[in-house]
Amino acid sequence: MNEPTGSMHEASGRMTFEAAQEWLLARARDAGLAIEVLGQSNRELTLAAQNGSLEQVTEAERAGIGIRLVDGEGRAGYAYTEDLGVEALAWALAEARENAGLLEPGDARIEPGRALGHSDSVGDGLAEPLAQKLETVLGFEEDLRADPRVRQVPIARYMEREARLSLASTGGARGSYRNGAAGLLSSLVMAEGESLKQGFEIALETDFHALDPGRTARTAIAATGRLLGARPLPSGRYTAWFEPRVFAQLLSAFSGLFSGKQVLEGKSRLAGRLGQRIAGEAFTLIDDPTLPGRIGSRPFDAEGRPAAPLTLVDRGQLRAFLHNAETARALGQPNSGHAWRSYRGPLDVAPSNLYVPAGPGLQPATGVIVTDLMGLHAGANPISGDFSLQALGLELRGGELAAPVENFAVSGNFLDLLQRIVGLGDTLEWHFMGACVGAPMVEVDGLSFAGA
Amino acid sequence: MLVSPELAGQVLAAARAGGADFAEIYAERWKRRQLRTVDRRVKEATSGIERGAGLRLFYGLDVVYAYTNDLSATSLLALTERLCQLRGRLGRVDASGGGGLDFRPRRASGRHAPAQPFDSRDKATRLAWLHEADAGARVAPEIAQVEARLTEWEQDMLVANSEGVWAEDARVWTRLHVNAIASDAGELQTGSAAPGLTMGLELMERHPPREVGREAGLQAMTNLRAVPAPAGPMPVVIGNRFGGVIFHEALGHLLETTSVAKNASVLSGKLGQTVASPCVTYIDDGTLPHAWGSTELDDEGAPTERTVLIQDGVLKQYMVDKLGGLKTGYRPTGSGRRQNYTLAPTSRMRNTFIAPGDTPKEALFEGIDFGLYAKSMGGGQVKPGSGEYNFAVREGYLIRKGRVAEPVRGAMLLGKGPDSIRKIVAVSDDLENAPGMCGSLSGSIPVEVGQPHLLVSEIVVGGEAA
Questions:
Q1: Has the ipTM of the complex gone over 0.90?
Q2: Domain residue spans of chain B
């Protein structure tokens, strides 16, 4: 346990982070209001390389305070500010109160809390000197250009993010934690004859020393290069093998189906299906905020509830939804400790480290390995579960690679796809896509592919 | 004032003394409010202040950027020094430069100023508007849920640079979103409508909430009755308004110097060449009064302008920001934009649309034996290096024997932009724009997309029907 390290500067009469939190709590108590103040302070370093030199550097700090206020009639209102002057803090408190007044009386609460300690999962993991990070990104960019088929390297970046979250409420919750990650991000354009393919790769670790630029570059080149010379795929139904990253993308796009808040708002087609079989028996889904060394790990959630693992789907059977105190109470289900909010937004629920445990292994025979999915933000409907996504892949016949394939769409419904899962690969891979998501390769029977 | 001219001058002079060829300070303060109802109940009421500054230094064509929430002199000068040191460790610091700055103040004239500022109405009035939108969306008993959301943004921005630019703008955006869900026998389908303009609460007069709700409700009902879309290549009529998103993604992004300068765009180095069908004229206009993507000054302090990108199929201009101009030699077009102080500006679209043609809308459908009418579009995505794009059809119909036939759902259009833009065979005369949020290197920013109805001779349609 470390003492919290305030990262705000005290200058020109502006309050520090902690002082602003205390000022708001005191004001709220005086007015007989229950509030929860969530403070976040984020640090960023990005180094972008281009043709052997450092093209762009970003160094930054951003911090703010978000108020969740519950008035005497159980109504929750929100306001936030990045300006920690007294005037802005008073404005935020007044707005939060006025906003709460727009709601109908409800049963929102600030949960009774306790001291949660101050933890640090970064330690010295990002503390290497800048020169070493610079060397890393320049080496990475050079490695990305190593293959003669690489025509452009539009993106070659080292990035580092560090966040400190601090929570304090009139209910007695008080604690903070610090986490962070370092990563390599790349985009490649490769060409062979008339064929042109662009790939994206991201590798993220909680410790700078765990990054392996050479390996990440080789992976990026191999992943994009294998698709050169792709030909159109005839329309039809195929057995599909989703590569781990692609399945993680799909899971991330549809993770709202498992959100207690979406269930409560009538936006999940899994509502009312607890205990039912919703997926192939091979499929288990877990969210675990306690995994050591994972990007999504945290000691407590945004309402101050200590973290614990949760099995959402057990061998095909729906067992639980992700909940915060409010959604759990409304649905009469256990609070899983998945409250989430940023200082700028309202209380929600969110996964931490969401993953499909690996299975016994796969032997792809005849069908298509899906290697890339595009258009998830538009072509996937998180409410209906319908998706129709542009894909790239590798066609297999009798276990042998027939050809890379392009310009086709994979369509279906995510819930239907879950039912058609027939097998899992034996290696779990973690990917970061807004959330931390893990999956092995996933075999799905009879998917509709629309191509030439 | 966010940052005084004295402090800005000190910061910029310090940066120049630290060896930067160009220095820019950007400061802003946002006030944002959002009110959201689901089935008439308020689900979210949020207010917030965002405030910060970004400091950008050029060393040749290399860029160093930093941002902070702390606008005090101590903080900004320390940040400047840290950036110079950072660069010093990485490159060569030149101790020359510096000196006083003589700013030339440029203030927006108020072309997009609100007629009804946010403080002119109370929150109860806003709630009543959302209730009207909710009522308007309930066009049939199958409408199971209606979500209505009012978003208000106010931004005061200031940008000053070492070339003497001092620009200030006050900007206001208002947007009403309505999402309707229709449900029948376990089937859920959605419809939406979301007008937004750079104006105040007079948006509610331009777009009465009840009508906005009705549009969303009708679309959800159409989708509920729709059958799965067919798959395969076919002629496609793309609707006006948000239909313009296809060429925003597949063409517009390829004309930003962000892509062009790196030769990462398939349209790099093609000025003066025929890149589109001769019936295509493509324009990016940041000056349209009150349009969602308009500002008087861009985020680098330059006045926005109307930029003709493609004239009758021939590539005329790219969209150029300051850095893009230095890299390519093209004249900046007032296209430097950013989401907020946390991101350095880059070349971005504003209000981008295909100009009207002279084919009557009905004539577009006449020769089509079997095809798709993509009446309303969802979002999309493009890889600028290969031109591959995809996007979802939010409301679509089959075209059979020259007529609009049954509705279809789940359709996706996919292809390669430079290929599709050559396959536009006819453009009608009903140009309309629609607002959206565009995400790219400098973040998520408001833009309009638009076009008249137009016919593309062949696009691959992804759909579920065998």
A1: no
A2: 5-107, 118-154+170-225, 232-462
